Amino acid sequence: MVKSTQIGPNGPWSAMAYAILEEWDAEWAAFCRAMSTNAWTSGTLTPRFVELVAVALCTACTNLDRAGVRQHIRAALGAGATRNEILTVIKMGSVMAIHSCSLAAPILREEAGSEALAASVRPVGETPACDRMKAIGQWNTAWDPFFQLDPSWTDEFMATGAGIYGAGVFSPKETELLSIAFDASFTHMYAPGTRRHIKGALAAGASVSEIMDVLKISVGYGVAACNLAVPILAEEIELLERTRR
Q: Residue ranges of the Carboxymuconolactone decarboxylase-like domain (predicted)?
């Protein structure tokens, strides 16, 4: 078994997985490392923000990569990120689960039909969080179907989300770039949100290169497959060889 070594910058890599892979296939490992760590070395995004994007990718409710979360929280803190910034990213990773409703609520309305929908109508009551978002032009019409199905719960959700996005922890540009990472991630691939947040990032002053580097971090995180499986393969080969002795 190859012992863990430090490679810098690690980027999305587990040092142990990379060391094993480098021993087995040095050429492919070098190509893959250059590609997957490009956003860490390009200088387009600050080291702090690169690591925050990596935290977002790992902590997203569609991914939940425990080892990656710890690795990139540690690196983000080392690069100057604050507890509040990292906690905000974690909160963002939680509320992205709303896309379950964005996807399914319109389908539910279509399939249920008018009679079933009429029978399930809930009293609207007061919806201050939704009203506030509509008043400031932040309401997304993709939320209309589940608002119509359950306005009270939708308002509870919007109050939760507004507390994150309205806190001013990140600049509008950084908020949009992080949102792109969540939606474009290969574990999510939510096209409507990706387009909306790319438009928002451009409007907030992000460059094409900055957005592209967020996407490169997302692609580079494909090496999570190596981080997970290469050490297991090495362990199983070592176990098999021991049983044959």
A: 27-96, 153-234
Residue 98 vs residues 12, 22, 61, 103, 192: alpha-carbon distances, Å: 27, 40, 11, 9, 13
Q: What is the pLDDT of residues 170-187, one digit of tens each?
A: 999 999 999 999 999 999
Rounded to whole angstroms, the Cα distance separating 57 from 63 reads 7
- pLDDT tens profile 23-80: 999 999 999 999 999 999 999 999 999 999 999 999 999 999 999 999 999 999 999 9
Q: What burial letters (b/e) apply to 174-205, b meaning 16+ CB within 10 Å?
A: bbbbbbbbbbbbebbebeebbebbbebbeeee
> What does the alpha-carbon distance between residue 154 and residue 158 come to, in Å, rounded to a whole number?
6
Indicate the SS3 state at residue 30. helix
